[in-house]
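Researcher: Sequence of Purple acid phosphatase follows. Predict its structure.
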Amino acid sequence: MARVGIMLVALGAVVALLQVAAALPRLEHPPKADGSLAILVVGDWGRRGQFNQTLVAQQMGVVGEKMDIDFVISTGDNIYDDGIANTSDPLFKESFSNIYTAKGLQKPWYLVLGNHDYTGNALAQLDPAIRNVDSRYTVIAKSFIVNSGIADFFLVDTTPFILHYWNNTKFDWRGVAPRDTYITNLLKNLEYALTQSKAPWKIVVGHHPISSGCGHGNNTELEELLLPVIKAHGADMYVNGHDHCLQRITSRDSPLQFLTSGGGSKAWAGKFKATPDKVEFLYDGQGFMSMRLSKTEAHLAFFDVAGSVLHCWGLTKTAAAAGH
Ligand SMILES: *[C@@H]1O[C@H](CO)[C@@H](O)[C@H](O)[C@H]1NC(C)=O
Ligand SMILES: *[C@@H]1O[C@H](CO)[C@@H](O)[C@H](O)[C@H]1NC(C)=O
Ligand SMILES: *[C@@H]1O[C@H](CO)[C@@H](O)[C@H](O)[C@H]1NC(C)=O
Ligand SMILES: *[C@@H]1O[C@H](CO)[C@@H](O)[C@H](O)[C@H]1NC(C)=O
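Model: Prediction complete. Tokens:
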């Protein structure tokens, strides 16, 4: 009996180790000295400067410098049409380094992959060698966490959720297939990370929308699988791209805000979908989003291609919720 007991203890230790090994990779990005954080969010951008990518980039530079941003988040579809072939693919410089040249944007960029980054070599943007080309470009894994003291950002790889991509041979599923196991593990790790998070603001970032009134609209796979996890664990915002618009939607049955920042280049699709959630603001054009966070307040804004504020709003947290 004693031997069985020891074996069980040993087995428990192995399982614990495996769980640690499977935890989502994380990196620390400390806030400013006063505890606040300023960031920009852009998505769906890499088109060699075309479709007003350059104009959006210039205005991000102006706003980024004014706000003294700490970092930039990309909601994916970083490089059109099929990501990059390898870290020396000239498309990377043409669509990233040579475009986001402003002083205000010389900060780390934390990125998720979109479906367009997946239809070539989906591993190239994750290769650490990319930072020899441009030191800002930070994709430490397909899903990872950025801890910033007052806010935790949970970057989630949403492309594998979308069922109809799985019949398209252009997608690079290395390290992903089989789908069910990948998604189960990802959600388990995300749930664990959300429950462990002590940050007042919990912000989940993915490429595909959960709720959207723009051209692509809702994704049922994400509604069914991802939404319950992020609602149950008190996420404040779900931030996405994929729809080439700027959009703020509030959930009708939770404090969650669905924010689309997918206006980094080609836009003006002129297509709209119904969503049962409350659409507070929708702009079917180019631009980006800014976010300034303190322990108890969040100030967000959407900017257009000329740098004009289209819509801004605030969120507050009670001192108790902020962990005082
Ligand atoms: C680029 O932005 C300008 C406004 O500054 C707009 O008139 C034009 O249609 C936009 N071009 C594209 C391709 O979206
Ligand atoms: C990287 O990709 C580019 C673009 O497809 C190609 O021209 C080049 O030969 C590739 N380089 C290496 C080292 O594979
Ligand atoms: C994928 O293709 C298979 C075989 O053609 C088909 O049975 C299945 O319904 C397709 N799945 C989706 C999600 O389109
Ligand atoms: C959009 O999502 C909501 C849940 O947030 C769901 O009830 C609704 O049926 C979806 N609408 C469409 C058009 O898929």
